[in-house]
């Protein structure tokens, strides 16, 4: 890998993480020159990173001004939740049939992770663990195409899922994760699918009530 490609990837992943975990806010204006100056690099890798982030739907071009961190559309968010329930419900159902004992043990470890709701670093750590948990449920389905679809839908929702990591919802999610592992371990595909859908729906209700209530 050449140096320019390496710099492009580094700045891409750095900015992506900052956007997804709320360090760079929706609606914030970014410029190639500013980012290049902040990280003491040339404009080319920054411009290429911005292009990749635009492709991800995280940035929008503002002609003659720079790039705007994209805002989250209400209809798009609702659609993504529906997609998640369909995909992850099916993944959980398959996991209850196909997951190995080792996979179930790994899911249990992810579900039982310790955290403090008063520590911002722990919120981000739990968010990453939450992402890993849901992705690993898909992996336990042993359907590679389904894994990719679930991972993509989760990636699109990471910014929104951060809104759900507030108050008692951290403990609620952890309890729900442990229940999912229990159902997978019992080889109960019907109820595992049902509970996964309920788990995602409860997150949807919390997010909409906190951020979109009139």
| Through-space gap between termini | 51 Å
Name the CATH superfamily classification of the largest domain. GntR ligand-binding domain-like
| Largest sheet features | 3 strands, antiparallel
Count of extended strands? 3
Output the helix-strand order.
HEHHEEHHHHHH
CATH architecture group name of the largest domain:
Up-down Bundle
* β-sheet strand percentage: under 5%
Global mean pLDDT: 90
Classification by helices and strands: mainly alpha
Whole-number tally of structural domains: 2
At CATH level 3, the topology of the largest domain is: Four Helix Bundle (Hemerythrin (Met), subunit A)
Provide the low-confidence segments as ranges.
none
What is the global morphology? elongated
Helix count?
9
Rg, alpha carbons: 19 Å
Strand order of the largest sheet: 1-3-2
What share of residues is helical? over 70%
**What is the top-level CATH class of the largest domain?**
Mainly Alpha
Please provide a written account of the structure:
- There is one protein chain.
- The protein is mainly alpha-helical and 214 residues long.
- It has 2 domains: 3-69, Arc Repressor Mutant, subunit A; 74-211, Four Helix Bundle (Hemerythrin (Met), subunit A), CATH 1.20.120.530.
- It is 72% helix and 5% strand.
- The protein has helices spanning 3-20, 32-38, 43-55, 74-98, 101-111, 120-140, 144-163, 169-185, 189-211; strands at 29-30, 59-62, 66-69.
- The chain has a 3-stranded antiparallel β-sheet with strand order 1-3-2.
- It is elongated, with a radius of gyration of 19 Å.
For this entry, give a set of tags.
Four Helix Bundle (Hemerythrin (Met), subunit A); 72% helix; 9 helices; Arc Repressor Mutant, subunit A; mainly alpha; three-stranded antiparallel β-sheet; 2 domains; 214 residues; 5% strand
């Amino acid at each position: 890998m050449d140096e320019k490609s390496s710099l492009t990837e580094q700045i891409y992943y750095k900015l992506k993480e900052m956007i997804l975990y709320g360090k760079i806010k929706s609606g914030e204006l970014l410029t190639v020159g500013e980012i290049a100056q902040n990280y003491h690099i040339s404009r080319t890798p920054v411009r290429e990173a911005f292009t990749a982030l635009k492709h991800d739907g995280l940035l929008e071009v503002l002609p003659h001004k720079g790039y705007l961190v994209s805002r989250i559309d209400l209809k798009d968010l609702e659609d993504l939740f529906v997609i998640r329930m369909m995909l992850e419900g099916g993944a959980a159902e398959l996991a209850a049939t196909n997951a190995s004992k080792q996979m179930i043990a790994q899911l249990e470890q992810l579900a039982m992770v310790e955290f403090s709701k008063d520590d911002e670093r722990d919120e981000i750590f739990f968010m990453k663990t939450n992402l890993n948990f849901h992705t690993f449920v898909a992996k336990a389905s042993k359907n590679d195409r389904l894994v990719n679809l679930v991972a993509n839908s989760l990636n699109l929702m990471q910014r929104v899922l951060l809104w759900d990591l507030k108050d008692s919802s951290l403990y609620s999610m952890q309890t729900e994760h442990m229940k999912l592992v229990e159902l997978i371990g019992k080889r109960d595909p019907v109820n595992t699918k049902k509970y996964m859908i309920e788990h995602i729906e409860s997150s949807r209700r919390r997010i909409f009530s906190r951020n979109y209530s009139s």
